[in-house]
Amino acid sequence: MDPNPIGFQHHDHSHCVADAVAAADRSCREAGLQLTPVRKRALEILLEEHRALGAYDVLARLAEDGFGSQPPVAYRALDFLTKHGFVHKIEKLNAFIACAHPGELHTPAFLICTTCQAVAEAETDPSHSLLANIAETTGFRISRAVLEAEGTCPNCLASEKR
Amino acid sequence: MDPNPIGFQHHDHSHCVADAVAAADRSCREAGLQLTPVRKRALEILLEEHRALGAYDVLARLAEDGFGSQPPVAYRALDFLTKHGFVHKIEKLNAFIACAHPGELHTPAFLICTTCQAVAEAETDPSHSLLANIAETTGFRISRAVLEAEGTCPNCLASEKR
DNA sequence: CCCGAGACGTAATAACATAACATGCACCAG
DNA sequence: CTGGTGCATGTTATGTTATTACGTCTCGGG
Question: Which residues take part in binding Zn(2+) (chains A, B) (predicted)?
Answer without folding.
Answer: 113, 116, 153, 156
